[in-house]
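USER:
Working in pairs, take the chain set out below, taking as long as you need, and write a paragraph about the fold.
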Amino acid sequence: MRVRVFLVLALTALLAASVSACDSEGGSASPTESGATTSTGTSSGATSTAPGTLSERDFKNKVAGAIVTGTELQGEPGFGLNVNVSEPNGLDTVQLVLGDAYEQYTSDPDRQDEIVDGLVQEAVRRMEEGNSKRSFSEVSGRLMPMLKRRVDVSRIQNDPAVMRFDDLDVVYAVQGDHYFTVATKDDLDRWGKSVDEIDSLARSNLERQTNKDQKLLCEPSGGQKLCGWASGDGYDATRMLVPGLRRQIVKELGGPAVYAVPLESVFVALTRKYAPVIKGKVLQEFTTGKNPLSPDLFEERNGQLVVLSQ
């Protein structure tokens, strides 16, 4: 798990202590940065098919290739009989579940091109629709916040709803079973909600989901303790913004904490007195890691999360 690796590296930098074999086990997790949802399909392996008929794997590749060549979207074969579709310069994703289409494809050879074209058109339509046909009651329990670099948010089309946080931005997205769609200012106008209202709701949803599915991980070593998340679900760094989750960390550490989110996939915290020593390790992770977020350290001051004062 990525959080174990990062916590161990940080602790080594802090205390110059050797890392136990237990601490060094495991590899890096694969974060879900694009917000892709869990797929529900059959095995991704090839199945027995009639002569001249594409296997499930080849059918996935054919559909993904048709999306790439026939649209401005990206298509990649997913787990099971699914294709994940994404924007080249945005965060939106949709997942095409191909089970029914594959049955039609194998049973009706004369319509094979039509079936593939229909899937391409479905991907384009769902991307273009975004949240436009979803009511607030449909999305309220699925809205989630995401902490992103401002330069990344600037590339998102369709004017996303944004909340500023230091030199970063928070955007909001509706995560469904087979889609992940950023909420735009037009969406909020249609729902009759302000950014502040959406922000409060999204943070509450993230706190509830975290407490249910992603428990806080703390690593004792060398007489110290580091806590954080690196679950790979796409929301690890964003968890820093949730007061209730920070309170869990303060309770575990037994006092004021300093927080770091060098990567989108890592949120780590430790007692404040070690901030000067950990800063270099955070900067290194930010500089060399995948999907960097912030080189800064943060603290809670007067109930607000702010950049650590020097």
Observations:
- Residues 136-211 form one domain.
- The radius of gyration is 22 Å.
- The chain has three domains: 2-30+215-307, 56-129, 136-211.
